[in-house]
Design brief:
By secondary structure, the protein is an alpha/beta fold. About 35% of the residues lie in helices and about 30% in strands. It contains 3 helices and 10 strands, in the order βαββββαβββββα. The chain has helices at about 15-30, 75-90, 135-149; strands at about 5-10, 40-45, 50, 55, 60-65, 95-100, 105-110, 110-115, 125, 130.
Length: about 150
Amino acid sequence: MPVAYLDLPSGLEVDTKKRLLKEVAESIHHAYMIPDTRVYCREWPAEQTSVDGLVGHPVRPICNFVVPPGLPLEAKRQLVKRVSAAIAEACNLPREEVPLPSGKKVGTRWVLAFFREVPLEQAALDDLMAFENPMVLESMEAAMQIQKG
């Protein structure tokens, strides 16, 4: 049931994409433990994107997680860390230092992630609502027990 949509620069090697999709799927499954983890890759040529209004700027990846609610914050942090690292490696993204108004600098690889948490009463697999689906309920309970330690 968990899904990730990856918006990436076009032109990645097939083997690189395979490794990336596998790592993202494994990372999501490790966090949620729900069967049927799906990862979709959308590729964008630079001329079809802009960053800060600059068309043709190198594509900055985005990962949209569409997932059930309830994953603890620390588990989300771990998931984002793993997925961001995998995307940065696959896309060969250098770390950039961004100056802040305070004079401090922050390092980033510009991998943006969003969580869209879908309530179980607003999701279904085949003809079974997610809040009634034992695959979802038992898996989420197991993931929460592992997170609690």
